[in-house]
Amino acid sequence: MPCPAAPLDDTAAYRALQTHDARFDGRLFVGVTSTGIYCRPVCRVKPPRRENCRFFASAALAESRGFRPCLRCRPELAPGLSLTDSSEVLADQAARWLAQAAHEGSDAPLPALAARLGITDRHLRRIFAKRHGVTPIAWLTTHRLLLAKQLLTDTALPVTDVALAIGFGSLRRFNAAFAQHYRLSPSALRREGGAQPGVLTLSWRPPFDLDGLLAFIARRALPGQEVVDGLTLRRTLAVQHQGQTLAGWLAARFVPERHQLQLTVAPALRPVLGPLLQRTRHVFDLDADPAQIDPVLASVPGPARAGVRLPGSWDSFETAVRVVLGQQVTVAAARTLAQRLVERFGSPVDTPFADLSRLFPSAAVLAAADPEAIGTLGIVRQRVKALQALATAMADGRLLLQPGAQLAETLDALTALPGVGDWSAQLIALRTLAWPDAWPASDIGLLKALGQQVGARDAAAAQAQAEAWRPWRGYAVFKLWLSLESP
Hints:
Elements: H1 10-18, E1 29-32, E2 37-39, E3 53-56, H2 59-64, E4 68-69, H3 90-104, H4 110-117, H5 121-132, H6 136-154, H7 159-165, H8 171-182, H9 186-192, E5 199-203, H10 210-220, E6 226-229, E7 232-241, E8 244-255, E9 260-265, H11 273-284, H12 290-297, H13 316-325, H14 331-345, H15 363-368, H16 371-375, H17 381-395, H18 407-415, H19 422-432, H20 444-449, H21 459-466, H22 473-485
Parallel strand pairs: 2-4
Antiparallel strand pairs: 1-2, 1-3, 5-9, 6-7, 7-8, 8-9
Helix pairs in contact: 3-5, 3-6, 3-11, 4-5, 13-14, 13-17, 13-19, 18-19
């Protein structure tokens, strides 16, 4: 099977290991022949001898060569496959879908994946092996077992629950796969773990414009539902799981000096820890690779910002509603309207925090609401119609907004809804689908940040200017917005 090269030649890769260079975290793994263990480049142990090192582009490739994950640097914490590796590359898209399936504990049959990509499953196997050096099944198994390793180390979930959460149908099959890959039983790994129980850790590649991202979120946070307190974000959340709605809270605390985020989740949400880990990565764009994005954004007007991230979505319906409410009004006005929706239609939820008490209303609730009741909140009739059409489409499953959804089909479905034009569709896709090349051409703030004057604004000229920022125009949008909002 072909073996794709690591992102650096061996000499540069060893230098990255010696300097613990976090820029290559998740893109470079080092197998040590003398121990049979593979590490991240940020591992703090003494670097092994150069002749004992083997370099790989992925954890799955390292494991396919017989190496076991390091218990100190924990490869499962590394950033994942970045959208900056080109979301249009079929093999990379398939790899992201497989990682998502691993975190959701669902099956990922290759014929279905291939059909989503418009190719045969035989061709998918071929391009996947050429790109990643392993089979799709090996990739899926590695992600499942690394997620299991994290849940065993960071939580008190019973081993049986961990096995079921990652998609193994039986404890026997899980134990056998774990022992085959890691030469260790799940219970033995738990005894060796030293992490803080109940706190899940995620990593990112520096630099990271954390100030810009948190300031953006804080200006839009809804009282009672979301709070930014220094380097910590807390919020309420409802998640669908096996036909039930699980409601609770989460807290994400950033530790910049370690390039890490520490996630604490309410007990009620523990059955969906896998999907929540993926969602957290999406919300804070933890898998982004600034080394590829920042050079493209260098010509974007405004102050320099290293490590710009795209703010994602905890709840795709909530994000879409807030985009619709933001049509032709200020950020503050849209926030006020959203707050009224939460107070009128949101459900109460118990949390240990005095400033968190309500959930954002679900699609089913708003779809069934009396239009007149929504109108009394100060939302104009046309916008009420748009909100309820959106709610109905999402409640009955006709509209799916999540990373990995087909872009063209989603944009068409959004613009087919009443009151949802190209501007709204582009912003919804940017936030919920993590589309890195979104460009809402008619956005007033965007045109203002580009230096266009009132009365002389030209969306076509702005779009021509933005061609230089492909395929990361979405990052350029966010950078331009920040130039208006930040001092």
